[in-house]
Design brief:
Layout lengths: L6 E5 L11 E5 L6 H12 L3 E8 L6 E3 L5 E3 L2 E6 L9 E6 L6 H16 L5 E9 L9 E5 L2 H5 L7 E2 L8 H11 L3 E9 L6 H15 L6 H23 L6 H7 L11
Parallel strand pairs: 2-7, 2-8, 8-11, 9-10
Antiparallel strand pairs: 1-3, 3-6, 4-5, 6-7, 9-11
Helix pairs in contact: 1-5, 2-4, 5-6
Length: about 270
């Protein structure tokens, strides 16, 4: 595909790790940073190793200033967890600074990511996203869809609300859709969020659900602290809204109950 010339993949080593059918778990930046925060937490807590950086001319034309003061071109990055010597699952973890700016480039990037994943005989793709309601909630629900009917049937035992309509926009939907065409199972888990704040509570909800599905153990204490910070921020916003006499609109109420005829799931 000609557009692939707009993508450059730089591996951290000339030799690839010998992973045995890893899960691919993706967290792109989006509403509330729900998915990205969850995957970044996995990378940090599991001490995942860097595999490759993916650059694209469809990403915003800018560099990001890192915490150490260095500047780096906007990119997506792949990390891996090799547990071949144990009974634990191997993982490929994708995090990104940005999603592509146009549909054609989204398809190209999705194919490139899956091409890398197939080098390791990836068994299943997970994308983590946001289910936007416009409302603040005490305990975010987890919504889900999958390309395999048996996976969807298993959602009930994990307290995942099955999506029965609408769409998932961007890379979170596209990746599992293309994965299905390539014979790879795909699942998208979406954490309920207002869409107004960086929502660690929603990230924590989907991550707890995910780790039960891929059978890994992760220290959640630092994400729990961020979730409490989110709760404090939400309480402050609610107090400010109450002071102004602001009420939830009918449109917001309809969205959370899924009654709007044009409801979409922007992730």
């Amino acid at each position: 595909m000609a557009l692939r010339s707009n993508i450059k993949v730089i591996y951290s080593s000339e030799s690839l790790p010998k992973l045995q059918s890893p899960y691919l778990i993706c967290g792109f930046p989006g509403s509330g940073y729900v998915g990205k925060m969850a995957v970044d937490h996995l990378i940090q807590e599991l001490d995942a190793k860097h595999l490759a950086d993916i650059y694209s001319t469809s990403f915003p034309p800018q560099v990001l200033i890192r915490i150490d003061g260095t500047a780096d071109l906007v990119k997506n990055s792949l990390f891996y967890l090799d547990r071949s010597s144990s009974s634990d699952e191997n993982l490929l973890l994708l995090t990104g600074d940005s999603q592509p700016a146009n549909p054609d480039s989204e398809y190209v990037l999705a194919e490139e990511i899956l091409d890398i994943a197939t080098k390791f005989d990836t068994k299943q793709v997970f994308t983590l996203a946001a289910y936007i309601t416009g409302l603040f909630v005490g305990k975010p629900r987890v919504f889900g869809t999958a390309t395999d009917a048996d996976i969807v049937k298993s959602f009930h035992e994990r307290n995942i609300s099955i999506m029965d309509g609408g769409s998932i926009t961007g890379m979170n939907g596209l990746l599992i859709g293309i994965a299905k065409l390539q014979g790879i199972k795909g699942t998208c888990l979406l954490g309920e969020t207002s869409g107004y704040v960086v929502d660690a509570k929603a990230s924590k909800s989907i991550l707890e659900t995910l780790i039960s599905m891929v059978h890994i153990k992760v220290d959640m204490s630092s994400l729990e602290k961020r979730a409490k910070d989110t709760e404090m921020l939400i309480q402050t916003i609610e107090q400010q809204m109450a002071g102004r006499g602001t009420k939830v609109s009918e449109g917001q109420q309809a969205t959370i109950h899924g009654k709007s005829s044009d409801t979409g799931y922007i992730s």
